[in-house]
Design brief:
It contains five helices and two strands. The radius of gyration is 31 Å and the shape is flat. It has about 160 residues and is mainly α. Helix 1 packs antiparallel against helix 2. It folds into two domains: about 60 residues; about 55 residues, no CATH class.
Length: about 160
């Protein structure tokens, strides 16, 4: 931990210092990036905290030396006895059964894949694809305030210049 603490803290601070200023970009771009920047910065800090505190403690619990009689029998974190073959073996057997079922029913899987692809194409064409609403035609409205009784020539000059 002495060798890893410095680099972990350094990486976390560098990443946070890169993403935090992104949250202060003005305008619509800043509003888009603000949530992502803060989320990434906070998650990096939490990850560094986890790497420095919780992960070493968990490794200490799981990797402690075991006696000969309990070496083939493991315990979970609540102290309940688990045999390696029951917990992991059941998961492996379930995964293999699912993979075999998918392989045996390859035609059905391909039909489902095509249906999902067509659905994605259908909804992709129907849903809006830009941040700006369709009503936005790209016009810019400017409001000018000239003195009372200003002539049309003066208003035109102010608008053009």
């Amino acid at each position: 931990m002495k060798e890893l603490s410095g680099p972990v803290v350094g990486i976390a601070l560098v990443l946070a210092s890169v993403f935090v200023p992104t949250a202060f970009i003005p305008g619509i771009t800043g509003r888009l990036y603000q949530q992502f920047a803060l989320t990434i910065a906070i998650s990096v800090i939490l990850s560094a905290f986890n790497a420095l505190t919780l992960s070493p403690a968990l490794a200490g619990l799981l990797l402690r030396p075991q006696s000969e009689e309990s070496s083939h029998r493991r315990r979970d974190l609540s102290g309940n006895s688990l045999t390696h073959s029951t917990a992991i073996g059941n998961a492996v057997r379930w995964f293999c059964a699912v993979v075999h079922a998918v392989i045996r029913k390859g035609g059905l899987v391909m039909v489902l894949l095509v249906l999902f692809g067509l659905g994605a194409f259908f909804f992709g064409n129907r849903l809006p694809s830009s941040f700006m609403p369709d009503e936005d035609q790209g016009y810019l409205y400017v409001s000018m305030q000239l003195p009372i009784a200003a002539s049309m020539e003066r208003t035109s000059e102010a608008g053009n210049g």
